[in-house]
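Supplementary Methods S3. Input chains for the assembly prediction are listed below.
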Amino acid sequence: MINGTDRILVCCGTSCIANGALDVADAIEKELEARNLTGDVRVDVVRTGCSGECEQGPVVRFMPRDLMYYRVAARDAKAIVDSLDGAPVKKLLHRRDGQFFEHMDDNPFYALQHKVVLKDVGIIDPLSLDDYIARGGYEGLKRALAMTPDEIISEVEKSGLRGKGGAGFPTGRKWRSAAGYDEWPKYIVCNGDEGDPGAFMDGSTMEGCPHAVIEGMIIGALAIGAEEGVLYIRDEYALARDHIQHAIDDAYEAGILGDSIMGTPHKLHLSIVRGGGAFVCGESTALMASIAGKVGEPRAKYIRSVQRGLFDKPTVLNNVETLASIPTILRFGGDEYAKLGTEKSKGTKVFAMVGKVKHTGLVEVPMGTTLRTLIYDIGGGIMNDRPFKAIQTGGPSGGCIPESLLDLPVDFDTLTEYGAMMGSGGMIVMDDRSCMVEVARYYVDFLCEESCGKCTPCREGLRQMRAILTDICEGRGRAGDIELLERICHTMQDVSLCALGRTAPNPVLTTIKFFRDEYEAHIDRKECPAGVCPDLTRFTIDAEACTGCGMCSRVCPANAISGEVKAAHVIDPDKCIACGSCRDACRFDAVETMRRMPA
Amino acid sequence: MSDTLTITIDGRPCACEPGEYLYDVAERNGIHIPALCRSDAFEDHRACCRVCIVEVEERGRRKVVTSCVYPVERECTVYTNSEKIVEERAVTLALLAKRAPDSETIVSMAQEAGELDGFDRLITLDGEKCILCGLCVQACDSLGTGAISTVNRGVDKKVSTPYDKPSADCIGCLSCANVCPTGAIEYTQDATSRTIWSRTFELAFCERCGNLMGTREAVHRAAEKAGVEEPRVCDACRKKELADEMMQTYRYV
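Predicted structure tokens for the full assembly:
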């Protein structure tokens, strides 16, 4: 029965919008209008933030019935509205291993998650303050306003919350030291300059529930005594910036921000600074330099930002996800939050899981969840059931973790012991068709462009490592290259000025540590075992396995493949550019790779 | 009154004030730490070259720090030539030598720090002398000229004028070239003009003795900043003129 309480949630996160979610929402609204469901007896369409399973988007969900549809197109609007009080549209349901799932929580992708930061993302209208308040928003702030700064900080300390931007510094301890400095003004800054390749946790949080970040900042400001705050948001995150600005405006209007927070004498003014477009500006000191209008370069950090940060004043810099965890901690108490997670890493962590995994998207799990659970139970395993090879965590600062370590709990400390790091939450899953040397080269190349170039080891070390890794990938690797790479890496780790340079060797060191044989194959035998490096790889078609379907020749960008329909195809080695498109397209595993050069 | 601390550098006890930079304490005690981007003139601009690294042992933990910006806060033991420092300084200098192979200063420093043989494999930037220490930019900024800056980032970083075009702000004063530790900033000069950063400046000479006073722009800027009339004579001659005037005034007293 449609009785006026129904809401249709249309995911309008960046990814779903790119797949036409706004058209879907419009089409559903039009359909509702046509059926007079917009008056007293109404069904509201809510354009929400990211619901998580981006790869299956646009996602549409009915509440309170909790019916979830995936890969929806505008033309499905009629069927969807039909199903409001009828049978679900089967073709739009989630399907895994031949089974259909009607409800969100039945879907294994969601069932194993535990949402704290993302609890309202994908459910509320990010542009509606009322929606946020209806879900308990600003309850944490109300509690904080009745507490002393010391009590607020104690609550955060009790929660065990650690900085989720990757470094894992205890948030309570950071706040306490900033509160201890008797120098004014103080600042609270939100780091929304998420830049790791493949990461979209913070962007989705800001887009989907901007008020949670703002509430976290207000509570932080009360704790340290700041009356001014800045949100430094990555320039590319236009939607996140719009939503945060909208939320700031609403909060001012509602008396939540401004010269009197909720009628108390406390003040806080927030503004947005657009990121400078450089990856390094996510580094704390570079970020503050950028806000101050200087070149975004880090400074030596022997005097910490809590003492001398933005404009040389005591400053607390927290990441988006850290701040968005604060309202829950204040609302339900630090002890409650500390029940989640492991002994040293409390609470939850949001991950952006991408790559060769069946179900990609935004997931939030308790700290300590194993990589295997993330990849196989939540992500559904490797695409096309190919063998797993490695998972890259923590972006350019992180490392590649092999199969043998998949049962490690993911938290701040465990992965670091193995030379990788959990980082801010980017995860790229790779199958056996990924070349680990090429992966290392990719990250080094990324950092060659994104290092600020201020200090010698980072700038020059990256330049030399890129040259050596490129040589290895192109068949010019020499004996001793691995050792030389390690030597440069170790110096970079100790001597670089900021965390970017000190962690930049991680992709190289972890791939050497766990996939040394692959480096040796490239250097000694001029062979790329994964069949990726074009200079080392030749593609051929196994005439017996080939069914002559012609898929390979259709995808070949170089027109190098010929053959009659239903007859074995052939690759012309002179035309082939070894891009591997044919191998990815072939459903019969008929495309084989061979060594190109003589050993 | 702050308490004086005693720290140990390479086995030698050294007294210092809390907050003093480790590099300064070492130098004062006659312990030399190599450094390239450090200048007493620019305290805010340091820690780029990473050559002045040392190892500090504090509360039982050892860490590598850049001595030019590391403030001494508590008792510690410092090693300026531990095995780790020798290795990492050698790698850092080798990286610089490959970047600036035309700088004799850098290449000989690198050779002194360790054999360069192990680094044959590395690529060199032929013809380059600049190590991107940024001192030139600091000097230009401090003068209020701001004609040059570092441009681009990462491996493409360089020092240049805006858009590599001759800068209208440059006064051809040579401060950048003079402060450069590797002589990387080139300029040419003949009897009447000087060319630097692709711009040619007319030179100004003392009307009395004929000595070079600088470029017209530099003389003009200096007078403008001091709020005085543009001088026609050099400093030495101005003093001489003053002395002559005094002599005239007081000769019959």
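Residues 161 and 167 of chain B are 6 Å apart (CA to CA). Chain B has two domains: 5-119, 135-247.
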